[in-house]
Amino acid sequence: MSAVSSAGKGMSIALVAPSSVPFVIGGAENLWWSLLRHINENTPHRAELIKLPSPEGDFRSLVESYAAFSRLDLSHFDQVISTKYPAWMIRHPNHVVYLQHRLRGLYDTYHFCGLPDDLSVDAPAQLRALWDWMATIRGRRDSLDTLLAALRAVAEVDGFAPWLALPSPFVRRAVHTLDSIGLATSQVSRYAAISKTVARRQDYFPAGASVHAVSHPSGLPVAPHGRYDYFFTASRLDGPKRIEMMVRAMASVRGDVPLVIAGTGPEEARLKELAKNDPRIRFVGYVNDESLSRWYADARAVLYVPYDEDMGLITFEAMQAAKPVVTVRDSGGPTEFVEDGVNGYCVDPEPAALARALQALTDSPELAQRMGQEGARRVAAVTWNKVCEALIHEPEPVAAPRGVGAGERKRITVLSTFPSYPPKGGGQARIYHLWRRVAQQHDVTIVALGPSDSPGSDAFVAPGLREIVIPKTVEQDRHEQEVSASVDWVPCADSAFALAPELTPDYVRVAGDHAARSDIVVASHPYAYPAVRGVRIGELWYEAHNDETRMKQAMYPATAQGEALVQAIDAIERELCERAQRVICVSESDLDSLSQRYRADRSKFFVAANGVDLDSVRYRDPDQRRELQQRLGLSGRAMALVLASWHGPNLDAVETVLTAAPSFPEVDFVVVGSAGGAFAGRELPANVSMVGAVSDEEKDLLLGAATVALNPMASGGGSNLKLLDYMASGAPVLTSEYGRRGVAGADDLLWLYDDSVESFVRELRAFCATSDEQRRIRVPLARDYVERNFSWSIIVGEVLRRII
Questions:
Q1: Residue 405 lies in a domain
Q2: Are residues 246 and 202 in the same domain?
Q3: With bands split at pLDDT 50, 70 and 90, how would you rate the model's confidence at 395?
Q4: Which residues pair with 469 in a beta bridge?
Q5: 460-479 pLDDT, tens per residue?
Q6: Of 119, 108, 265, residue with least CA distance to 198
Q7: CB-based burial of residue 804 (10 Å sphere; 0-12 exposed, 13-18 middle, 19+ buried)?
Q8: Can you tell me whether residue 384 is helix, strand or coil?
Q9: What whole-number distance in Å separates Cα of residue 463 and Cα of residue 465?
Q10: pLDDT, tens digit, for every residue of 544-590?
Q11: Same domain, yes or no: 729 and 678
């Protein structure tokens, strides 16, 4: 519950921040002072800004700055809010991170310097050992004191100086490890970011973290004014701000509208030399807030073209002054507010494109005025009230003793035949994203079966969500091979385990122990249930990802062995549907099929559909998609993307693609996922690539660059997680009628065909001929449809309502 809306009850809040050495004032200070003032003057809460000197000029100073915040005791506050390294090392039970940026030179701009990822081969053995160890303790607060002591020790060795220079691979790994501890999900109660740009940056937030992007206004008092005399920018004069691009653009702008540049920095002399022959360009140096407001007031437009800026307060300040903003497409935060041709210009990052925008504003003061008014309306919705609503939350109440009250935390054990973390395939994603949200109110433990060659694990993979992974035994592997051989080598690890869970006795023991001590035991899929069949269970649930019996019947051959295996799965699924107090289905069709076939009490069945983790699926509009294609060298040819794991219905879908591909020599078909392994050694059409399993970052790039996403499913149960990922990413979707099950009411947002290969070819050809306008209309509506209907935060409510 938001504490802002709690009548009459205020909290004590500490804003925790670094004080730069030497001290400077910038956007971070603007945020802290403005947020502090708003909390104290406009909410029932009391806030204080607590800053510690944080030098970072050398490795030792940087380590000590992190250490200082890790020791800071602020337990007398109800909540702490941090926004920047190293302040988030603070330890507090109600710690909210409103992230501005990490140490960018060791994160998103590190590789611009051409620096390596790995430690050099000649590094001393002591550094190499510490390097390797740091990779094993990411996110572990219990290792922090040891880590700090080790980093201090190496900082004292003069001979290590070459490897401890800033930036360097070793320093980078040290800071990444420290940040992973301070920002771990076990240490932070809520994550937010100052912009979508920051929220999407690689490595900025822990895996699985839910991040709310909420922009803040500027604390600078700015008022609109009626004059439009000059172009203006205010910025530090250094490389990433790209003032040079503005100077070069002005050389191509006709007219006498001046460019006024406020600010100082290391490139000041060079920029003045570059601009010396253009009397229209004026450098005014440092300006205070009062002068800055006046400069905004009479500007025709404000230029702001940094590279990948976190947010950029100049954008808000300009729009508050009713001035259009001219920025470029790779400027990051500013592009979230500048709509090209509406409240300013967002152009390619090159002087010629910038010059064209400036020429249009030079030629038409009326255009500048009209755009400025649009900008003022745009930023009126950005308020400190919204920031406070996102950040200020009462501490979670301490759970009542077991057995006391209706709101007690339940102990829930989820049984699975595969690990859920990190989530890659559809089943993994469902288990992880659904149950980690349940774990916000109840104690959830997943007992999962892992590969025989893995060491196993026992860890909290999200707040309140523990996953224990038990490796299969060699005997289990051998049994699995025998069962698979009996059904023509169709993969059947899950079915084989269901037939003989006793071959992995550690799984039976651990699952049974947790099941016996739990309030609720959830069989996620039916295959792990036989491991606890003889255990006395308080309440049994069945989470049916599919109609498993019907699906296995389609996968296994119609032989005696195949039919026997289907009958065995049918018996387990029947027992679960009859015995379970609750049966979770992912679609109404599965609910009907299971409840009717087993003649089970329909009232205990309910639907909790498959969903999408919207924080991890980046939406790209057609222009951003085209820009990414150019960056990746994919422009000029269409790319059709298929996500497919090694699963019978998915393999059939890939067969459809392979049959159709020769008809489209101008299209590159890319199959992502483990399904590619099923086609190893097979001759493929020249325009088909099987890329196998990929990382989340690689998947995001492929989804973002796809011309069209294909969902040619003709069988299988449940619903299609990949279809929701496609829709959320902004990729146009061509799907079979069967494949679009579970998304009722979305037909107008998709490109549909009638399940035959001939129809697939025909509709894909028709799609390739569609205009950009048709795609622009459908894709944002598809994203909105997913947000409204398939966010895990909404879906989990169906489960939580039934945990009583």
A1: no
A2: no
A3: low
A4: 448, 457
A5: 888 889 999 999 999 999 99
A6: 108
A7: exposed
A8: helix
A9: 6
A10: 999 999 989 988 999 999 999 999 999 999 999 999 999 999 988 89
A11: yes
Examine the domain organization and report whether 583 and 627 are in the same domain: no
C-alpha of 73 from chain center: 31
Amino acid at 584: I
Closest-CA residue to 605 (of 530, 541, 546): 541
How many other CB atoms are there within 10 angstroms of residue 759's CB atom?
A: 14
Instruction: Examine the domain organization and report whether 347 and 478 are in the same domain.
Output: no
CB 14 within 8 A of CB 48: yes
What gap in Å lies between CA 398 and CA 410, rounded to an integer? 14
Residue 742: CATH number of its domain: 3.40.50.2000
Lowest mean pLDDT: which of 271-285, 381-395, 399-413, 480-494?
A: 399-413
Would you give the distance in Å from CA 715 to the centre of its chain? 30
Asked whether residue 626 falls in the same domain as residue 724, the answer is: yes
At residue 4, the pLDDT reads: 40
How far apart (Å, rounded) are the C-alpha atoms in residues 319 and 443?
47
Say if 70 falls within a structural domain: yes
- 580 and 637 together in one domain: no
570 and 433 assigned to the same domain: yes
Strand partners, 62: none
438 in the same domain as 564: yes
Single-letter amino acid, residue 580: A
Pair of tokens at residue 654: 């890939």
In a domain, 18, yes or no: yes
- DSSP state string for 387-420: HHHHH-BPPPPPPPPTTSSTTPPPEEEEEESS--
What is the gyration radius of the CA atoms in the chain, in angstroms? 29
Domain carrying residue 147: 3-213
Structure tokens at 563: 């039919």
Nearest to 718 by CA among 600, 582, 593, 578: 593
**CA 61, CA 67: separation in Å to the nearest integer?**
10
Note whether residue 394 is domain-resident: no
Mapped onto helix, strand or coil, the DSSP state of residue 643 is strand
The total number of structural domains in the chain stands at 4
Q: Which of 156, 181, 213 corresponds to the end of one domain?
A: 213
Note the pLDDT of residue 26: 76
Quote the CA–CA distance of 1 and 12 in Å, as a whole number.
16
| Chain center to CA of 330 | 19
Neighbouring residues of 23: CB distance < 8 A, sequence distance ≥ 6:
none
Is 189 exposed, middle or buried (CB count within 10 Å of its CB: 0-12, 13-18, 19+)? middle
**What is the layout of strands, in order, in the sheet containing 733-736?**
688-692, 667-672, 638-643, 708-711, 733-736, 751-753
Query: Tens digits of per-residue pLDDT, 623-649?
Result: 888 888 888 887 778 999 999 888 788
Confidence (pLDDT) at 634: 79
Choosing from 370, 385, 400, the residue where a domain stops is 385
Query: Token pair of 174, please?
Result: 């040290």
**Closest alpha carbon to 600 in 586, 615, 585, 579:** 579
- 670 close to 770: Cβ distance less than 8 angstroms: no
Strands in 536-676 per DSSP E: 540-544, 582-585, 605-607, 638-643, 667-672
pLDDT of residue 591: 94
Among 28, 2, 16, smallest CA distance to 81 is for 16
How far apart (Å, rounded) are the C-alpha atoms in residues 474 and 504?
9
pLDDT (average), residues 385-392: 90
